[in-house]
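Homework help board

Subject: predicted structure for assignment chain

Our instructor gave us this sequence and asked us to write out the predicted structure in token form, then describe one feature. I got the tokens but I'm not sure how to describe them. Can anyone check?
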Amino acid sequence: MRDIGKILPIEGYRVLLKGSLPADYTKSLTHLYQPLVGIQAVSLYQTLINERDFQEDSTARTHHTLMNYMNAPLDEIYRARRKLEGIGLLKTYQQDSSEHHWYTYEMQPPFAPDEFFVDDMLTQLLYHHIGEAKFTMLQEHFRSQSPEKGTNITASFNEVFQTFQPHAEGLNLTNDSQTTEENMPSIDFSWMEQMLQSRMIPVKKVMTTTNKRLISQMMTLYDLAEFEVEKAVLWALTEENSLVPKEFKEACHDLFQNKHQQATIRLTGKTEDEAAETDYKPTTKEEQLILKLEKISPKQLLEDLSSGGQASGQDLKMIREVMTTQGLPSPVMNVLIHYVLLQSDMKLSKAYMETIASHWSRSNLKTAREAMAFAKNQKSQYQQRQNNKSKNYRKPASKEVVPDWFKERKKKKPAVQQNSADAEQANEEFAALLREFSNGKQ
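My token output:
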């Protein structure tokens, strides 16, 4: 019922196709995509593809036409459209007119069967939806349809062209540089590189473009924290420090199972309210702080708090050990780092951090918002205990006679100057915001 009215039957649309369809695209739709998005979404895709042939006539196409073709209410068609958008088969553009909206549906070609099994995220999803036996059968079936091509001896870009002047000797483009920025993962992998360096593992050999993309996809698919991904990477490394994709995927799935106590992972529908959270723009300073702590890495947090200075390897090692030992998610660890720094005159104390981390771990905190609320509640309890102590204890009144010259000297005594930390807070609004609920050691 919540999707009724999102689009109206009278609103018009047109269909475009980006590129061309693979020759066996219908096999991909029915056997590979349909288990993921359902028959209604696949039916809508095929209907829109065939609608292109009828766009030349003068009759306006409205969504009422789709309702008749598919024999389905418009809210179901709307949900099917969103599934196509989410899986990458459709892009929707909206135009506003004086009366109603008009839509352009740009159809995206599905992967050909052999290309589908190259995408790690889609193959993992299909594996969990249809099971190992059927997945293996489909994989072997479509693989057998692809003729044996032999050894790839295609000349690379660097072998044929050059992008520098002949006199600029010593410039060497690696294979990874051939990959466009568009395909690079958007995750900051500095935390992973730091972990590999601390273990004397060659970073460049592990963090290739292909491996970065795989790590990014599995991290998103299984909703893993950074310390969990580190475990999976270490588990999947060979003695030669090569990452085995299959073992890495299995390790990520095992971590997901242990965390959620369920046997498989499946696509589920997300409401537009949930999807809109990714576009959420905080209005208050506290909400801005929470959003930042949710997204940045502990390394970046340390550098931000030191005005862009480099985070020390010792501090990062300390943080990584606490995260791994206590199993704290990265956002919760960010709040803990901030809390400890403010409590310890901007110094990281391992013993103090471990004490609080164990408490927070037992409290099963998962997000920065939960950690901040928990810290605020602890502060309130601490202040209440301090107030109770002060009420129960009364300092006896002094009966000694105080000379007049001592009173005059006390009046002339200069006020205590504000310490350097407070001066620094004036320039660091980020740190000052958390101080409002992090005063008082627990």
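Reply (TA_rk): Your tokens look well-formed. For the description, you could write something like this. The beta strands are 12-17, 90-96, 101-107. That's the kind of observation they're looking for.
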